[in-house]
Design goal:
Number of strands: 13
Helix content: 10-25%
CATH superfamily: tt1808, chain A
Shape: globular
CATH architecture: Alpha-Beta Complex
Oligomer: single chain
Order of helices and strands: HEEHEEEEEEHHEEEEEH
Distance between the termini: 30 Å
Largest sheet: 6 strands, mixed
Number of helices: 5
Structural class: alpha+beta
Strand content: 25-35%
Number of domains: 1
Length: 186
């Protein structure tokens, strides 16, 4: 099935257009792309991560957005990460940022190609980013890119199993997989 293409838009035109739309959209290379509805597993993982991360981070230093705040990754691209942690230096009236220190995507069949493809390339190119994390919904598995002295590695660390723990030293975060996957049905 072919979907009609939206006309190309500037970021400013997209923001004005998206404000009046039902649903959530990203702007990808100048064209709006509607985001899919999520599953309960996706919701549980997101909620679990938010709880653990908010309890660990200093609210005076960091802000968290959950799937609804724009991240500008290019001159004509705005992404909506499932979870985004930014420095706490933003105006309450801003609609987007170009800075993120942690980006998390919850893997879905419909988003896997983007999460491991275009989004990965765009996210890892952000100078402010310290970690990019992709979390599977159907098994206890995560892919974690951590910025090192020479930038990001080509391949992520793969963390598997409910007994494992994710560590993001740059943010002093420890994320036990058992906490991430609480109430998730495999």
């Amino acid at each position: 099935m072919n979907r009609p293409l939206f006309p190309r838009m500037s970021i400013e035109a997209f923001e004005a257009w998206a404000e009046g739309q039902d649903g959530r959209y990203e702007l990808v290379r100048g064209r709006p792309v509607m985001m899919n509805q999520t599953t309960w597993n996706h919701s549980h993982i997101t909620t679990n991560l938010v709880r653990v991360i908010l309890n660990a981070l200093d609210p005076n230093q960091y802000h968290m957005a959950i799937g609804d705040f724009g991240l500008q990754t290019g001159e004509d691209t705005i992404r909506l990460a499932d979870i985004m942690v930014t420095p706490n230096n933003k105006s309450g009236k801003d609609r987007r940022t170009e800075e993120a220190v942690l980006l998390i995507e919850i893997l879905s069949p419909s988003t896997a190609t983007d999460d491991f493809g275009d989004k990965q390339r765009e996210y890892l190119a952000l100078s402010s980013l310290q970690a990019y994390l992709i979390i599977a919904q159907d098994k206890a598995c995560a892919w974690l890119w951590l910025r090192g002295e020479d930038g990001f590695p080509e391949k992520p660390d793969v963390i598997e199993g409910l007994d494992a723990t994710l560590t993001i030293d740059a943010l002093s975060l420890t994320l036990p997989m058992t906490d991430i996957y609480a109430r998730v049905e495999f």
